[in-house]
Amino acid sequence: QKEVEQNSGPLSVPEGAIASLNCTYSDRGSQSFFWYRQYSGKSPELIMFIYSNGDKEDGRFTAQLNKASQYVSLLIRDSQPSDSATYLCVPRDSNYQLIWGAGTKLIIKP
Amino acid sequence: EAQVTQNPRYLITVTGKKLTVTCSQNMNHEYMSWYRQDPGLGLRQIYYSMNVEVTDKGDVPEGYKVSRKEKRNFPLILESPSPNQTSLYFCASSFSSQANTGELFFGEGSRLTVL
């Protein structure tokens, strides 16, 4: 069974601080990793993807990948109340199927 | 406007009464998929389709049927709904899953309650 482990939260972060969301995965064959954001009652939307070990930055978001440790993270700088949502770490396995976890609920406190 | 459209958005039905949730996309995507989402659980894939007339079971296909007669449509059929199928359902689409960036385009969701 291919699994994704995320702290379900809620993770509470003050406005303007850095939010750090972490994820571990079980499938060593996964090579691509996606972060989706899901607002309450809404559908998921892709915010970042990362394929290579290291960091990838896009605006206030930085994704980090360490395949040897089977670890993915997402940093959100200068957190805003509009960042409050559930963040889903989604590896893609060697059959190109996405593996969905339950996500981490993030709350940004004004 | 590029979109995935699901209908109905909300439905309350009774055990055993057949229902169909429609899904249509206007982006000429080859790949379409149905998921269900329950509290505390991640998205679970029900069925997916790589292209017209090609469908495959996902992780939780029991109690569901699908068809892909046209590229744009991928209806989800519950022949005899049961209360354990009460859930939030999402349809999603993308270009070929082997070539795309992993970005799925989701419909707004269909909240189904089976009494």
- Name the poorly predicted regions of chain B: none
Order of helices and strands of chain A: EEEEEEEEEE
Count of separate DSSP helical elements of chain B? 0
Give the strand tally of chain B.
11
**Sheet of most strands of chain B:** 7 strands, mixed
Q: Which chain pair shows the most residues in contact?
A: A-B, 21 and 18 residues
The N- to C-terminal Cα distance of chain A equals 40 Å
**Shape annotation of chain A:** globular
Helical fraction of chain A equals under 10%
Strand content of chain B: over 45%
Portion in strands of chain A: over 45%
**Quaternary organisation of the protein chains:** heterodimer
Protein model, in words:
The complex is a heterodimer of chains A (110) and B (115). Chain A has no helices and 10 strands. Chain A is mainly beta and 110 residues long. A 5-stranded antiparallel β-sheet of chain A has the order 1-3-8-7-6, with no helix packed on it. A 5-stranded mixed β-sheet of chain A has the order 2-10-9-4-5, with no helix packed on it. Chain A is globular. Chain A has strands at residues 4-5, 11-14, 19-25, 32-38, 45-50, 54-58, 61-66, 71-76, 85-92, 104-109. With 115 residues, chain B is mainly beta. Chain B has strands at 4-7, 10-13, 19-25, 31-37, 44-51, 54-57, 65-66, 76-78, 87-94, 105-106, 110-114. The A-B interface holds A 4, 8, 32, 34, 41-46, 49, 88, 90, 92, 96-98, 100-103 and B 35, 40-45, 90, 97-98, 101-104, 106-109.
